[in-house]
Amino acid sequence: MSEYANKRTRGAFIAAVFAMQGFGILAGGVVAIIVSAAFDAKYPAPSYEENPTASTVPQADYVWRIIVIFGAFPALLTYYWRMKMPETARYTALVAKNAKQAAADMSKVLQVELESEPEKVDAGKSKNDFGLFTTSFLRRHGFHLLGTTSTWFLLDIAFYSQNLFQKDIFTAIGWLPPAKTMNAIEEVFRIARAQTLIALCSTVPGYWFTVALIDIMGRFAIQLMGFFFMTVFMFALAIPYHHWTLEANRIGFVVIYSLTFFFANFGPNATTFVVPAEIFPARLRSTCHGISAASGKAGAIVGAFGFQYAEKGLGVKKTLIILGVVNALGMFFTLLVPESKGKSLEEMSGEGGDDEGQSTIESRTVPV
């Protein structure tokens, strides 16, 4: 997406694509609520503490299957639409060295007539043809790649921990009733309702705050701010944890917990997706973005399994403190990420510069 956008609104364009994830989260929650509510009404069952065996009716096995099936349809549409999309013009021109095809693809996308300029493609061949495992890449973009991979990794440790174990945290503070007081389908309904409420009030607004402000505030400021407030709110929940477990204070806990989701999305969850798509050379852009994303998924694995064992072994309070420390580390590694607001992709990658010094100047973390 970054290669089809102009530098003035590129951040909002990429962030808006990513923000559609928020509507997907909402849609998934709504589907889960409708399906579980329908099955609970059709097949009533006692709670687990009343009758452990009868609390899970045989028809409950269809609930998760129907929810997953609904998720398959958007995936099929995505596959179809992706097959219809042409390769980006920058890749076709700069990597495949086919200026004529690049012009034809851009003419189709933009619906304007464009002429190929092969001489400009030939002009950029020599000094920018370094590979991923070279000293030239390490010198120009090594710290950038470290910044994008580490921040995405650290973010997803905290972000996926919070998402996957919302029900455990909400049950621990009493916002959700204990599982034994519900039947299986009712538990699905209550968890889906709570998570959808969090998404509606904090997750989705956070995405669109990023879309609105990313080309004004800049990626660096939003990411640093997001990690900062995630850290503050995690410690605000963890340090006086007993205070939040009291019945009168549960709503306050939910509000602050929701704010961590808001600043995750009006913060690093969006910017860690945007920045790697802007700062690397065209022939390595997808590779570096993929490496950064893979690092994030590694963080998600750590978060998913780590929180599970940490919560059981250390308790919720200490686990929240650990997540606060993880977010603080995210602030530190954000200092390695360059600001790309208002700069062309060629300026950021050095592909359009006259020398390496120009590339270095344009890639500073804080704009001058």
List the keywords.
368 residues, mainly alpha, Growth Hormone, Chain: A, 16 helices, disordered C terminus, transmembrane helix, symporter activity, MFS_dom, phosphate transport, symport
Q: What would you say this structure looks like, in words?
A:
It is a single chain. It is globular and about 75 Å long. The protein contains 16 helices and no strands. With 368 residues, the chain is an all-alpha fold. The longest helix has 34 residues, at 184-217. Helix 8 (184-217) crosses helix 11 (250-265), helix 9 (219-238) packs antiparallel against helix 11 (250-265) and helix 13 (282-313) packs antiparallel against helix 14. The protein has helices at 10-42, 61-84, 89-95, 99-110, 118-123, 135-164, 166-172, 184-217, 219-238, 241-245, 250-265, 268-274, 282-313, 316-334, 345-349, 356-362. The chain has two domains: 2-85 and 130-362, MFS general substrate transporter like domains (Growth Hormone, Chain: A); 88-128, no CATH class.
Strand content: under 5%
Q: Which structural class do the helices and strands define?
A: mainly alpha
Q: In this structure, how is the largest beta sheet organized?
A: none
Domain module count: 2
Radius of gyration: 24 Å
Query: Number of DSSP helices?
Result: 16
The CATH architecture of the largest domain comes to Up-down Bundle
CATH uppermost class of the largest domain: Mainly Alpha
By DSSP, the count of extended strands is 0
SSE sequence, one letter per element: HHHHHHHHHHHHHHHH
- Tell me the CATH topology of the largest domain: Growth Hormone, Chain: A
The name of the CATH superfamily of the largest domain reads: MFS general substrate transporter like domains
Biased composition (Acidic residues): 348-357
Region (Disordered): 344-368
Keywords: Membrane, Phosphate transport, Symport, Transmembrane, Transmembrane helix, Transport
Domain Major facilitator superfamily (MFS) profile: 1-342
